[in-house]
Design a protein that fits this description.
Helix content is 47%, strand content 13%. It is an alpha/beta fold and 277 residues long. Strands 1, 2, 3, 4 and 5 form a 5-stranded mixed beta sheet that branches. A two-stranded parallel ribbon has the order 6-7. It is globular and about 50 Å long.
Length: 277
């Protein structure tokens, strides 16, 4: 299970790349926001891809930036990042994704209801890329994604750490990769006044965002209880990950990624023992 966290997701990519390189292949994976955007590379068996393209396009206005936000409504350009780049510039291995039997779920938030939507992605189609995009579409930085009759945004708003959901569908021993250190508690969002304006047509979404900190902290308690009972193995950074939600600094990206790899190697034997015991 991969938590989101925008560019903190590169830390998670470091952890999961180490797992792939050591042939650790779980039966299922659920990713939220950046956990979905970078976690899809686990199902396509492409270690190194997430850090590679983020560093390569760190300063490319086609990929992300104010220009993209002003012209398209998306800070991370939807067409370039989710259609052009994975098909032409850093090719996503659709065949490997389709053939890998691992179940891959992404979490989105339905802006009309404020509730989580869980989508199983088995084949790499145009809709698959858009489900991943929707999961990672941060409010304010992204336009609402209209897909299969739904209006969607960042999955982390409604279900940031979907361990309880994953257990409910039959996954009872889970590796939970968080992007905040031990002891972290989420505070009420300071940007709520802006959110109320930007999302004024979606009152249930505003309500979900207003209560997100309470939901998140309750989920941390659930994870802690599951960890005490041996139902999950929690991997988290040892301190604050030194990167913001948005970054164009390739060296900073590399540093964060290497920190994730270091933790992945540190926990490698524990992960292997937990999954295969």
């Amino acid at each position: 299970m991969l938590e989101g966290g925008a560019m903190r997701g590169l830390w998670t990519a470091g952890v999961t790349d180490v797992m792939m390189e050591h042939d650790i292949w779980p039966d299922g994976l659920i990713g939220v926001s950046a956990g979905a955007a970078f976690g899809c590379n686990y199902k396509s068996r492409q270690p190194g891809r997430a850090i590679r393209y983020n560093m390569r396009f760190a300063h490319d206005s086609r990929y992300s930036g104010i220009k993209s936000w002003l012209t398209s409504g998306n800070y991370f350009n939807a067409e370039f990042g989710y259609h052009i780049m994975p098909k032409e510039l850093d090719v996503f291995d659709t065949e490997a994704f389709n053939q890998n039997p691992m179940d891959f779920y992404v979490v989105c938030t339905d802006v009309l209801t404020g509730r989580a939507v869980y989508q199983l992605l088995t084949e790499a189609t145009e809709d698959t890329y858009d489900w991943i995009r929707a999961s990672a579409s941060m409010p304010l930085a992204s336009r609402v994604v209209e897909l299969q009759g739904r209006k969607l945004l960042d999955g982390g708003v409604a279900d940031s750490i979907p361990l309880e959901y994953f257990e409910s569908i039959g996954y009872h021993r889970n590796v939970v990769v968080l992007t905040q250190p031990a002891g972290y508690q989420k505070e009420h969002m300071r940007l709520m006044p802006l959110m109320r304006i930007a999302l004024r047509h979606y009152p249930k979404m505003i309500e979900a965002m207003d209560q997100r900190h309470m939901m998140y902290n309750k989920q941390l308690e659930y994870v802690a209880q599951a960890e005490r009972e041996g139902r999950c193995l929690v991997i988290r950074p040892e301190g604050n990950i030194p990167i913001g939600h948005i970054s164009h600094d390739a060296r900073q990206m590399q540093l964060v990624y290497e920190q994730g790899r270091a933790i992945g190697k540190k926990y490698l034997s524990c992960i292997r023992s937990f999954i295969y015991s």
